[in-house]
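Tokens in:
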């Protein structure tokens, strides 16, 4: 994608529109699609995603995330600022997206509707970005529409997006309808509504869970959300660790049937040993950025060269 064709929101000051285009182009590798490596689960799911049966021993320590992100082809590595501050000096080549709010899963919906408030201000992020010299391309934030606390989160998200755009940064909103008022958080029509809500907040990308449907395919159902999001690119969560070919097939359909603008994947990447995690990232990027087929992605994941494929 030619940088001049990148749609710059009007809340980006004229003097910083070049910086926004640069950040957007780096984040999407010039394609307009995003391969986001998600590493915010250290808070969201505590150690349940990083230690246990069927999880590689590599994943027990946080540096596995940084090792993977530094060796793989990704758009950005999304995690909390504190973790970036502890490891970023050894991994300055990684493109980062700072996740500004997070919560644990210890308090269930039956106890309280979900609420997640920001940990840092945009002023603090800017100071950190300048002082560290790291490639911080954007910021992210999670909202829970349907929660009794949604008004607080929507207000924080809207202000974060405006402030980030004022700095020429790209914004990603994680959007999960959740709370006692929500009967089915994976309902396709509800997910589309939430995608449209994030467009109204002004975000560049919205991350949603793929819908569950009883009739038709999830990829077809996801089209409604892609349309509702408009100029806000819709990306899908990777979900729990699953069979590689099934994952690549689902992602390929989300992009080429639904019209999604990429993915945000965490557990399916980092729960694998380093070599496999890097190859899995590269296979995802091939589908997302290069329009590779499922078969081509499997060859990348399995470490097969073009010569091997011919044989």
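Residues out:
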């Amino acid at each position: 994608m030619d940088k001049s064709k990148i749609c710059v929101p009007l809340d980006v000051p004229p003097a910083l529109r070049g910086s926004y285009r640069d950040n957007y182009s780096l984040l999407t590798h010039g394609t307009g699609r995003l391969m986001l490596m998600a590493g915010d689960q250290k808070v969201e799911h505590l150690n349940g995603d990083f230690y246990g049966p069927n999880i590689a021993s590599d994943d027990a320590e946080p540096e596995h995330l940084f090792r993977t992100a530094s060796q793989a082809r990704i758009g950005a590595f999304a995690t909390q600022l504190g973790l970036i501050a502890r490891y970023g000096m050894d991994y300055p080549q990684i493109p980062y997206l700072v996740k500004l709010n997070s919560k644990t899963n210890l308090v269930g919906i039956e106890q309280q509707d979900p609420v997640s408030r920001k940990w840092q201000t945009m002023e603090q992020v800017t100071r950190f970005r300048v002082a560290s010299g790291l490639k911080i391309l954007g910021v992210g934030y999670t909202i829970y529409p349907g929660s009794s606390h949604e008004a607080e989160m929507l207000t924080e998200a809207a202000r974060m997006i405006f402030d980030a755009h004022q700095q020429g940064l790209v914004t990603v909103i994680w959007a999960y309808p959740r709370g006692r008022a929500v009967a089915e958080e994976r309902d396709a029509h509800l997910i589309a509504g939430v995608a449209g809500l994030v467009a109204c907040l002004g975000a560049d990308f919205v991350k949603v869970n793929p819908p569950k449907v009883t009739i038709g395919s999830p990829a077809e159902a996801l089209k409604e959300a892609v349309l509702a999001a408009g100029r806000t690119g819709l990306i899908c969560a990777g979900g729990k660790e699953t069979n590689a070919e099934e994952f690549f097939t689902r992602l390929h359909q989300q992009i080429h049937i639904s019209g999604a603008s990429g993915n945000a994947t965490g557990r399916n990447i980092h729960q694998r040993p380093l070599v496999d995690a890097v190859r899995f990232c590269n296979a995802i990027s091939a589908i997302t950025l290069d329009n590779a087929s499922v078969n081509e992605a499997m060859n990348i994941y399995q470490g097969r060269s073009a010569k091997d494929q011919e044989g």
